[in-house]
């Protein structure tokens, strides 16, 4: 884990084409990070979710680490 990290997040997207499935998976981890009061998601990896139950044909999985804002050092 990184300094200021909130925790791992992952998401799944399912769509008629790979680009939309990926966008859906990324949107899902953004929403989860916001619910955790994180300010960003780092070290995001995206992979195909081939073989999963997806009625639209293409699936994508996104995972990353949600991080919170760090405090300003006292020397500033």
Explain what this protein looks like in three dimensions:
- The radius of gyration is 15 Å and the shape is elongated.
- The two termini are 26 Å apart.
- The chain has 76 residues and is of the alpha+beta class.
- The chain has one domain (5-63).
- It contains 1 helix and 3 strands.
- Strands 1-3-2 form a 3-stranded antiparallel β-sheet.
- The protein has one helix at residues 18-35, and strands at 5-15, 40-48, 58-67.
Distance between the termini: 26 Å
Question: Total helix count?
Answer: 1
- Quick one: biggest sheet? 3 strands, antiparallel
Structural class: alpha+beta
DSSP strand count: 3
Strand residues, percent: 35-45%
The average pLDDT score comes to 85
- Radius of gyration equals 15 Å
Number of domains: 1
Give me some keywords for this one.
76 residues; alpha+beta; three-stranded antiparallel β-sheet; 24% helix; elongated
């Amino acid at each position: 884990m990184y300094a200021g990290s909130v925790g791992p997040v992952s998401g799944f997207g399912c769509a008629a084409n790979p680009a939309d499935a990926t966008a859906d998976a990324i949107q899902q981890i953004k929403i989860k990070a916001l619910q955790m009061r994180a300010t960003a998601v780092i070290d995001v990896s995206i992979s195909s979710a081939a073989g999963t139950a997806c009625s639209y044909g293409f699936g994508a999985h996104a995972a990353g680490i949600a991080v919170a804002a760090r405090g300003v050092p006292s020397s500033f």
